[in-house]
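Lab notes, practical 5.
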Amino acid sequence: MLSIRSVHPWVIPPREAIALQKRLSQEVLQIPLPRDNPARFIAGLDVSSTRFDPLLTAGVVVWDRLMNRVIETASAQADATYPYIPGLLSFREIPVLVQAIEKLNTVPDIFFVDGQGRAHPRRIGIATHIGILLDRPTVGVGKSRLCGAHEEVGDGIGDAAPLIDQDETIGMVIRTKKRSNPLYISVGHRIDLSSSVRLVMESLRGYRLPEPTRLVHNYVNDVRTGVMV
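Output from the prediction step:
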């Protein structure tokens, strides 16, 4: 079973939340994926909601990268206890994500989180924050840019450009499918950028999103709309 740290309260004023982010960001480890981590079981994490409904639906899909199949899913629902504030998404979504993760029987080798990791103004997006709580390798798979700048990315699959903020490389912008917008890949925790990019590319199955992220996106929306319970 996964051990999840309980390091702080979730409902705190934005100023305190920002100070906490700055402190936690110092705990991030950017290291190559250890040789004893096969990165076979990859968990996709996502949260779904609608604009005027406080209910959040969190999902986790554990995907076997070698066999290309789902081995476990789990979900949880709860009302949001924190407002939507850009840059503080983790305080809104992690509590319900933790509820879903705690239901898993499988211990994933790595987590792909729908959102940013180090590609964040304070270098601690939701992927980094939850990675610190889990103390497991996590990768941020962002569909849009939160901060930083980059050169134009080529049209070919695998074409990439560094995402730069304040002279620091905070992620990689990668074309994962032709005629589709690139993805913003960044380190969450206990992995380096090179390993993060490699695993995302190895997890593509013909779609823009890597397979764990694509699967969990569909799963949480099905749970939220009642298609799957």
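Observations recorded by the TA: The beta strands are 41-48, 55-64, 69-79, 110-114, 138-142, 160-165, 168-174, 183-189. The chain is about 25% helix and 25% strand.
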